[in-house]
Request: fold
Amino acid sequence: MSRGKTGGKVYIETYGCQMNVNDSEVMLSILQDEGYVRTEEIGEADVILANTCSIRDNAEQRIWGRIEQFRLQKKNRDNVIIGITGCMAERLKDRLLDNHVVDIVAGPDSYRDLPRMLKAVTPDSPQINVLLSHEETYADITPVRMDKNGVSAFISIMRGCNNVCSYCVVPYTRGAERSRDPKTIIREAEDLFSRGYKEVCLLGQNVDSYFWKDPDTADNDMNFAQLLEAVAKISPEFRVRFSTSHPKDISDEVIYTMAMYDNICSHIHLPVQSGSNAMLEKMRRKYTREWYLERVRKIRSVIPDCGITTDVIAGFCGETEEDHRDTLSLMEEVGFDSAFMFQYSERPGTLAARKYPDDVPEEVKTRRLNEIIALQNRLSLESNRKEIGKVHRVLIEGTSKRNSGELFGRAGNNKVCVFPAEGHKTGEYVDVEVLSCTSATLISRLCSTGKVSGKE
Ligand code: 5AD
Ligand code: SF4
Reply:
């Protein structure tokens, strides 16, 4: 493809969170409308896009490595266009152009402008659009699904973030929070269901602060609990998940709505970050350890079998051994089903970077993280052992990687079950009984008569 023309083959690779995966699907939709076709072969692409993440320094370092590899692509085919999109584009802006590999820099709110940038770009005039918007939600764009299973899809319900957690770069890379028109969300979910999808996950940085203020009538205003209910009502055969919840915002209304509908999955991802009140205050999380534990008690009193997962950061600024032990004891007290665990990585421009020295030595951070991981492995195993003998309704997502005669899928509580296929296939719901487990998987068998344990 020669520069300045429309159409051609586009290769997209995605880093970071599910929001980014969804954004790649939005980009593909916009580009397909302009005559581009997707390729999974980087070597035959006219346009290479890397949709990037800035959350920790190692995420960015990986992408710098990739950019060096893109340089080789360019050596062989000097017409190929390299675009960096997403959070790293927003954070680094024109600094990404310095090495003369990148042609296009597009921040998370500028994807509608990609076709124009692709037309305008030349070797001497790279294109950059990193304007953040207060309105853009890509509400009218139907993402082109890149997932392979055709069973479970993500729907973005809001963009940006208004929490200023002191360690976090997201408010700077994705801008202010804005909620998407619920009509377009429900339409997208209905469309997925009619195309055979069986599950959606509603995505936002902080779903509990979803709020749609209708421009015409207050009767049509909608909060997150109401949105969840509206999506759950599409069909009892259509499961609903959501992520991420913020401990300061998750409401009783959301918890009761979850309990009311069998097809709203009993799983809440509730990032705690730390078990120490001093750290939580410095992180600007706006809740205490006690508040967090109360929310967990509330969830479990209404939905006893609810899966609760979390994110933890080890070695935040000024963290003492006592703070660290508070994190371990909170994890133990809650007994999380699983967790994403990270070492603190200072991000330029954040409040923490400006205010607090990153003073926990690297080896101490690593040791604390390892202790957190070891504890979570034990907790995950203990939590999975409690599942033995229980029956779960599972949505089959695919064939097990280890054994082609086995299938896997998730129970409502988000735990992965593996079981013999026995003629079943991806996209079906089956009931399985848990026979044994590892810390990551429930080894199960199909059962037809069993009563599903708890609310799925
Ligand atoms: N360093 C380490 N982990 C971080 N996270 C966010 N910012 C940082 C950072 N600067 C983690 C948090 C968040 C998850 C998505 O990434 O745990 O919940
Ligand atoms: Fe997602 Fe945050 Fe990474 Fe951006 S920085 S891609 S919002 S995880």
Q: What stands out?
A: The two ends are 51 Å apart (CA to CA).
